[in-house]
Amino acid sequence: MYELLAPRFFPVCIRYVGDRTVAEDILQEGFVTLFAKLDTYTGSGSFDGWARRIFINASLMYLRKNDVLKDSEDISEIRKMSSDGENALDKIGFKELIDVIATMPAGFRTVFNMYVLEGFTHKEIADELGITESTSRTQLSRGRIWLQNRLEQYGKQK
Question: How far apart, in whole angstroms, are the C-alpha atoms of residue 130 and residue 10?
Fold first, then answer.
């Protein structure tokens, strides 16, 4: 089971924490939880979805313990995006996009992953991270600006 699931859920852990070594630890923690709770899987819904939630929760637990939102960049430090009509995404591949997301400040990356990639609502994010919904919205907005700026810089390098 480990050999089948590890390649699928390791990228999930990396997306949340942005550090390969920490993600490996979280993956191990996730498997400990998965094996301990295997008997609670009822068969309703997909096993993949059930397991994915365990690895997301393991990542979020790590981030909560390390208070990821305390070191988020201030919005005043993020320059406004210039709109020159050129789309930065046209110049970047999927792997490069994931690599840029991995370099986002932890608070931005966490909320961005949860909202955009996992489909959580702001209420669910707030409940999971112990923050307010408005903080979740602010982190997402700032994260999008941060990401757009980095993609724009990346596009100019190509």
Answer: 24
